[in-house]
Amino acid sequence: MKQEYDVIIIGAGPGGYVAAIRCAQLGLKTACVDKWLDHNKKPKLGGTCLNVGCIPSKALLESSELYHQSEYDLTQHGVEVKGISLNLKQMMDRKETVVNNLTFGIESLFKSNKIDWIQGCATIVNDSKIPDKQTKTTKVALHNDKEVTLNAANIIIATGSSPVNLGIAPTDQKNIVDSSGALAFNKVPKTLGIIGAGVIGLELGSVWKRLGSKVKIFEAQDDFLSIADKLIAKESLKQFVNQGLDICLNTRLLSAQSKKNSVLVKYQDSDGEHSETFEKIIIAVGRSPNSEGLFEDETELVIDAGGFFHVNDRCETSLPGIYAIGDTVRGPMLAHKGSEEGLMVADLIAGKHREVNYNLIPSVIYTQPEIAWVGKTEQELETSGVDYNIGTFPFAASGRAQAVNETVGMVKVISHAKTDRILGVHIIGSQASEMIAQAVIAMELGASSEDIALTMFAHPTFSEAFHEAALSVSGNALHIAQRRGGS
Ligand code: FAD
Ligand code: NAI
Q1: Fewer Cβ atoms within 10 A, N terminus or C terminus of the chain?
Q2: Residue 264: inside a domain, yes or no?
């Protein structure tokens, strides 16, 4: 059976499904192919993000934080709760319900936008490499064992990424798991080792620590969270250590061997080699793009180091009419980055103008405190020799933060020394994920720190700390003692 489309999208994660909706809105006949099957072998839309990524991890982060707060923090508010206990099955069931509601929501959006959801594994047929060929062909091995051929003038590759495997610590999804396994433990492990103190290690380490695991994180680098601004990274390390996360930097994993109900880990640090046994191990050392095997045969498509499809700023690959977006291409592996690329490509295919501002991709780590930033870090500016001013404001001096007992952290604003244009905003604090949007909007509109300083913020809010940090760039913060001319 052959079917004709304007656009075939391969992958229905936040890159692919958003591209599909936008293509349909623009009047393009659209098919979206996805091979995802859940643990009941049911096809699901939403990709990594909805099924085993952003959404289930945030559901568990919220539930575990509530559990932790009711155990330790509510008494400070004068709320005495007795007999608190953990119902992990209910917590996991709620997570599943959230995932199912959202994936079903995309199914409904596909129906209302008349997008054909093709359930199976796509392979791009090799004659797609002929540059002047107008129609490209994709074969899909359907889940029902049949095969279908799809033709279209345009293909958007949005096949996402998978966890990096370590040969010295092979996952068995029982004792040694990746992030998907770590979102589905049916019992709180007494001891949990995590390889990699990156975003997944910190978020999932926080979940299981709050639920009662003794957590040790092994990180190969000697710098903690080197992608973040150094001041924020330093503060976050202090907070995580205070919370009881045992973070071992500059530590090399030698092996992890799964036993019946435990894992034997061998590692090396500056004191030499060590062995330690954990109930479970999570491997969280990064993700790699799903680019292998997508073409029927060898392709002339250019692939960068690490398996990323080579694309320009318009997400065009080296083959005309074939685009690649999201985790399959350069840039941070973030859902919103993939979605923006999907929107851009859909508009470009429909002949409209659209760009992605790669300089303003916000990053958030949903620990407690949260960490969020956009733009340049201080160390990046130092390296590139740009002169800058800094303003900081601690949440400890914020009325709202005091009132809700969330006084940890700060806002840091970096602006250009000559023009005062904001170059970066870095936040550690309980509302950082929401507050960072203000910085993105300000920077997208080319605001200076003075523009923010002259803007009115509602009182009492966490956002006032952004106002104060901007005031602090010129030494004029109101609620901290400050030397004029910058802090
Ligand atoms: P994916 O979401 O990976 O989707 C790719 C889809 O392509 C999948 O459904 C797959 O089945 C399908 N596919 C692959 N190959 C084929 C084929 N040959 N044929 C048919 N279908 C195919 N990012 C954030 O921004 N915020 C977060 O809070 C966040 N939390 C995360 C937490 C965890 C635990 C993890 C693992 C990731 C998290 N991420 C987060 C990252 C985010 O999930 C990814 O950046 C995002 O999902 C990438 O979107 P994508 O559309 O490129 O690919
Ligand atoms: P990551 O790149 O964030 O962190 C991996 C860490 O593992 C790094 O610190 C690295 O130095 C370390 N590492 C690598 N090899 C190691 C080894 N052999 N031994 C010890 N440490 C080692 O990758 P992570 O945490 O797996 O996340 C993957 C992607 O998913 C990230 O790129 C992130 O963007 C995305 N993600 C985003 C989230 C968010 O936006 N809140 C949440 C979770 C994931």
Answers
A1: N
A2: yes
